[in-house]
Q: What sequence folds into this?
């Protein structure tokens, strides 16, 4: 992101600046397009802001291309070399958690569709996603176990699988509880212990 690129520039770690300003930006763009269901559904203002920000970040490494984008595509006044470095706003962890959830959901949907495709037969044309404002009892049991593991091991969840398998309440619903537990572990790694709370973040 912007903050990472700025920190890399200030420390003269130019490889990291390219990684943050180009590669991570491209990944974020691709994720956004996937979540939105294609280019036609993307917000124009956001895409323009994306192009403008990335142009500024990459102007050091590709000045001629950046100047073309700045003047001819974005129609900005003046030269890109005299424009101010972009300023990043505060990170919204709730938005990141929502994004992680949607990405995991899309991955699971695609995986199930591939399995159905291999089996042959009629393929689904739509997917329904149901949302609940609270977790089910077996999900709360999974979260309880994960919190206990987290607290007992200083935040380390590497032993979560064994702990979940040993819990009687989780074992009763193992078929759905284990995949749910692993998805929560991944969310906790990405977004911190807030992912282990008894109440959904959104």
A:
């Amino acid at each position: 992101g912007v903050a990472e690129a700025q920190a890399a520039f200030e420390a003269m770690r130019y490889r990291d600046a390219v990684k943050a300003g180009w590669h991570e930006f491209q990944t974020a763009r691709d994720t956004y397009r996937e979540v939105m269901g294609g280019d036609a559904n993307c917000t124009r203002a956001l895409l323009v802001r994306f192009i403008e920000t990335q142009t500024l970040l990459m102007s050091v490494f590709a000045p001629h291309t950046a100047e073309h984008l700045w003047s001819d595509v974005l129609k900005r006044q003046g030269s890109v070399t005299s424009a101010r470095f972009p300023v990043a706003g505060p990170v919204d962890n709730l938005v990141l958690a929502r994004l992680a959830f949607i990405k995991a959901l899309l991955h699971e949907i695609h995986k199930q569709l591939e399995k159905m495709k291999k089996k042959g037969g009629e393929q689904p044309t739509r997917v329904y996603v149901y949302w609940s404002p609270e977790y089910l009892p077996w999900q709360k049991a999974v979260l309880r176990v994960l919190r206990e593991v987290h607290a007992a091991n200083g935040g380390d969840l590497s032993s979560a699988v064994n702990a979940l398998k040993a819990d009687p309440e989780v074992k009763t619903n193992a078929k759905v509880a284990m995949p749910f537990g692993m998805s929560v572990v991944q969310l906790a790694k990405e977004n911190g212990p807030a992912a282990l709370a008894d109440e959904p973040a959104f």
